[in-house]
Design goal:
single chain, alpha/beta, Rossmann fold, five-stranded parallel β-sheet, 5 strands, 22% strand, binds flavin mononucleotide
């Protein structure tokens, strides 16, 4: 049975985390951007990653979460510009977990991801983004080596919780 790692990533941060997760999984596995994902029944476990956009989950990921089959084992990961552990970075993951309520969520992981200088300037002009944009200045070095390593640990930990491990 296959394990799917899928992600949405506009500037590559979430993709890096997806790759780190993928590398730490056993042999039968698939890595695909969310646009290329069709059948979900083929997979035993699905890792789903996204960048936090406007405190929430990008539409493409939201629609994927809405069509996760009942009881499917999933794990969620995100990258965000705001500080880790603050309410802002947790909200989107909590929303993703609630959206995938029919699934069996094995775990969640998040880390910071840089925002381009141009992105900071453009988004900083909108009041909607004020709450996180100031914090994002210190995310410029992320995801870093430690983040990728932690993502790898997360992947292996999720496996130990899955029925895949128990077989
Ligand atoms: C349109 C837009 C909205 C964003 N909104 C938030 C936000 O609400 N909170 C936050 O912490 N980061 C926010 N970010 C920052 C991204 O979540 C962060 O840079 C992420 O690592 C980008 O991932 P990617 O390279 O995979 O696209 C936003 C970025 C963009 C471009």
């Amino acid at each position: 049975m296959n394990i799917l790692v899928t992600y949405f990533s506009q500037t590559g941060n979430t993709k890096k985390i997806a790759e780190a997760i993928y590398e730490n999984l056993p042999k039968e596995k698939t890595l695909k951007p969310v646009d290329e994902v069709k059948e979900l029944d083929d997979y035993e476990i699905i890792f789903i990653g996204f960048p936090v956009h406007s405190h929430s989950v990008p539409y493409k990921i939201e629609s994927l979460l809405n069509r996760i089959p009942k009881g499917k084992q999933i794990a969620l990961f995100s990258t965000h510009g705001s500080l880790t552990g603050c309410r802002l970075s947790r909200e989107a993951l909590e929303h993703a977990v609630a959206t995938a309520a029919k699934a069996k969520v094995l775990g969640t992981f998040c880390c910071r991801g840089k925002v381009s200088h141009a992105g900071m300037e453009a988004l900083g002009r909108s009041p909607e983004h004020q709450a996180w944009i100031e914090m994002a200045a210190s995310a410029q070095m992320h995801p870093n080596q430690a983040d990728l390593q932690e993502a790898g640990h997360f992947a292996r930990w999720v496996l130990t919780l899955s029925t895949h491990h128990k077989r």
